[in-house]
Specification:
The protein is α/β, with parallel strands linked by helices. It has two domains: 45 residues; 165 residues, no CATH class. A four-stranded mixed beta sheet has the order 3-4-5-6. A three-stranded mixed beta sheet has the order 1-2-7. β1 and β2 form a beta hairpin. α2 packs antiparallel against α4. It is elongated, with a radius of gyration of 30 Å. The relative contact order is 0.14. The C terminus is likely disordered.
Length: 218
Amino acid sequence: MIPRYQTVIFVILLAASIVMGAVLWHLLDRAHQRLLAGEDSAPTRAPEVAPVEQATLMAADDSDDSLETRVLSLPLPAEPGARARAVLGRLLDLYAAPGAAHPVPGGAQGIVDVFLLPAKNGTDAEPGAGGGSPSPSGQSLAVVNLTAAFANGHPSGIETETLTILSICATLHANLPQVAEVRFLVDGLPRATLAGHADLTRTYLTSESTGTAGGDQP
């Protein structure tokens, strides 16, 4: 025969279990309702994707120290700075590909950002600094911020460094004709040279680079 006190304890534990089960069921039901409400209120539109457009890349070729025109279809943002970065990233991807005519490691990750500022009269003005009046023709100065890893890994030599610089300038002008001048930074700071030779302290005119382009190569 079961003692009475054990029967009382059993009944109490059973009642507590029933109450706890009911509370847990209620909490689970509330959580389910909140989840459904969150799904109903979540946006159903897919994120916008940049439309695919034709981009002109002025790709360097070490065999004859020239620039060749390559027209590719790329997703290009509308904002000029982001557009410039996308185009230059694809250019550097070409250089990082196996068998590239102008082999340079790093690819698109070598570009931190590209900023467009009003061009100054003269080539000695610092990007964003005072001095000089804005170009009356609406021309822009592109400030290309490279990564230190890209600059440190770039092959050293006056020809190969100069070709990289000129191809970047020519590609910017081909896709953003308003870009008339280009300055370079490395991790946001001035740097004397790209890899020991090409001067990064000066302002490059895109008109100097466009005249070196070779024939079209779609």
